[in-house]
């Protein structure tokens, strides 16, 4: 009759989550965050009443996730592992009640699975080199209730500059945007959601100063530039820019030598 089970940080013998987990058919909440798991049993398909499932396990090796999540139709929250093996192919298109989806991978899941997830409010997408950007963009256009969106590239394709493929201005409810993608320069301000309040840029290696664009996003309240988001040497915040900014985080920008903040910025 168990409803809630938190197995965070638990180490399992041989990395195997016991198949008996499938007998807990009344589970609503299952958390495996940072658990020592490399094998998930197919019996998890019996957990059809789950509302919350966190599979963000701690594992140096690739984990195989059986294609059983498609049967958990009540799910509201799903967090997938960061590292899944090449054999993992997930069908998530029927999970129409999802509101939070973290770790959606274009390598292991079809971008068209997003089409019916119209209730999504928070989405994190891991982009692979095999990603069809046109298909992904058209699928994302259906997610009009998104409030938070993060894009991450897998390390092997960080060298590719694909950010121009995305136009995000149709996300009228989007408040928070994260881009961990390579781009030589930041997109034009008109490509950003109209009411964006927080932006986090990391690993972008932008060569052009992003401030002239960012300071024109009138609703921004916080900006984070971290982990070599900008590899130029000079940054300028001009008069009248960032009218609502409350917080600015600039860190791990090793090439930055000069930062000019004009009076009235």
Strand content: 15-25%
Order of helices and strands: EEEEEEHEEEHEEEE
Average pLDDT reading = 90
Spans with pLDDT under 50 lasting ≥5 residues?
none
- Ends apart, CA distance between termini: 59 Å
Number of strands: 13
Whole-angstrom Rg = 20 Å
Q: For the largest beta sheet, what order do the strands appear in spatially?
A: 1-2-3-4-5-6-7-8-9-10-12
Oligomerization category of the chains in this entry: single chain
**What is the SS-derived class?**
mainly beta
Q: Give the biggest sheet.
A: 11 strands, parallel
Total of helices: 2
Helix amount, in percent? Answer: under 10%
Keywords: Repeat
Organism: Arabidopsis thaliana
InterPro entries: LRR_dom_sf (IPR032675), LRR_R13L4/SHOC2-like (IPR055414)
Protein name: Disease resistance protein Rpp8-like protein
How do the helices and strands line up, and which of them pair or pack?
Blueprint: E1 4-6, E2 29-31, E3 52-54, E4 77-79, E5 100-105, E6 122-127, H1 133-140, E7 148-153, E8 176-180, E9 198-202, H2 211-214, E10 222-226, E11 234-237, E12 247-251, E13 258-261
Parallel strand pairs: 1-2, 2-3, 3-4, 4-5, 5-6, 6-7, 7-8, 8-9, 9-10, 10-12, 11-13
């Amino acid at each position: 009759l168990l409803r809630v089970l938190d197995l965070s940080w638990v180490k399992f013998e041989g990395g195997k989550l016991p198949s008996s987990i499938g007998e807990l058919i009344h589970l609503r909440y299952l958390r495996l965050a940072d658990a020592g798991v490399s094998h998930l049993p197919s019996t998890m398909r019996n957990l059809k009443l789950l509302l919350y499932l966190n599979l963000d396990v701690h594992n140096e090796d690739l984990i195989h996730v059986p294609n059983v999540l498609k049967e958990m139709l009540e799910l509201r929250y799903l967090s997938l592992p960061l590292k899944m093996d090449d054999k993992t192919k997930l069908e998530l298109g029927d999970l129409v009640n999802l509101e939070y989806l973290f770790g959606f991978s274009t390598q292991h899941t079809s971008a068209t699975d997003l089409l019916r997830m119209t209730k999504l409010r928070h989405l994190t997408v891991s982009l692979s080199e095999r990603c069809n950007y046109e298909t992904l963009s058209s699928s994302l256009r259906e997610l009009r209730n998104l409030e938070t969106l993060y894009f991450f590239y897998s390390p092997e394709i960080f060298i590719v500059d694909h950010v121009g493929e995305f136009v995000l201005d149709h996300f009228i409810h989007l408040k928070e945007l994260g881009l961990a993608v390579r781009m030589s320069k930041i997109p034009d301000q008109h490509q950003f959601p109209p009411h964006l309040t927080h932006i986090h840029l990391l690993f972008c290696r932008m060569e052009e100063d992003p401030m002239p664009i960012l300071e024109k996003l009138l609703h921004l309240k916080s900006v984070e530039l971290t982990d070599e988001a900008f590899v130029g040497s000079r940054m300028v915040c001009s008069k009248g820019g960032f009218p609502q900014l409350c917080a600015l985080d600039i860190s791990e920008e090793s090439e930055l030598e000069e930062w000019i903040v004009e009076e009235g910025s």
